[in-house]
Design goal:
208 residues; 25% helix; 5 helices
């Protein structure tokens, strides 16, 4: 017997909110997503989530700024994928040649790269609906950070689907941002160890 797994893809058309209504709603100013026409409010982030976010924003932001590749946005920047999907990824990168799509309130299209830090309340959305739609609508690279499993996974877009990119010699290497790479143990150091500083990682990445 095959069990049917209900997802937001099953949402009836009559129950779906439009991207325009979502963006106009005062609630969208808070961390949230419109997923298949359903307004999904984010739960308050854990301390672990925020520490990882701060670390990755510093590391990725330093690389993007040093190489003058584009812009990196944080968790309250909205990206309109279509009329039923507007996402606020934890981190998102857009290359300079696509910045003309940026408006004051939202970016009209997918980012080039997203980073999602999975929390218990967002686990299905991050790994199912949003993950599938990121691929369908043209996100070129997705980093999934899982604090529960202490795992870092990298995915690249192949014909509209996000496919995992395996580590090479213990490092996950971006295909979208040549020269950028991470070791999972930088994000999830062993017990008693500390994450390397941004300065140490900048040296590893050849920025200084």
């Amino acid at each position: 017997m095959i069990a049917h797994i209900h997802t937001l893809f099953d949402t009836p058309a009559t129950a779906r909110m439009s991207a325009s209504d979502y963006i106009a709603s005062p609630q969208s100013e808070q961390k949230s997503d419109l997923i298949e026409g359903v307004f999904v409010m984010a739960s308050p982030a854990s301390r672990t989530h925020e520490l990882i976010l701060t670390f990755l924003a510093g590391v990725l932001g330093s690389f993007v700024n040093h190489r003058q590749l584009g812009e990196l946005t944080g968790p309250n920047a909205a990206y309109r994928l279509n009329e039923e999907n507007v996402y606020q990824p934890d981190l998102a990168f857009v290359s300079f040649h696509r910045l003309h799509l940026a408006g004051d309130v939202f970016f009209d299209g997918p980012p080039d790269l997203v980073v999602e830090i999975i929390s218990p309340s967002s686990r299905q959305y991050d790994m199912v609906e949003k993950f599938i739609n990121y691929g369908r609508f043209g996100v070129q690279e997705c980093w999934l950070i899982d604090p529960i499993e202490r795992a870092v996974k990298l995915f690249g877009n192949v014909s509209g689907q996000l496919v995992e990119i395996p580590a090479q010699e213990g490092a996950l290497r971006s295909r979208l941002l040549p020269g950028f790479w991470l070791r999972p143990e930088w994000v999830f150091p062993s017990v008693g160890a500390a994450r390397p500083s941004e300065l140490e990682i900048a040296r590893e990445l050849g920025l200084i």
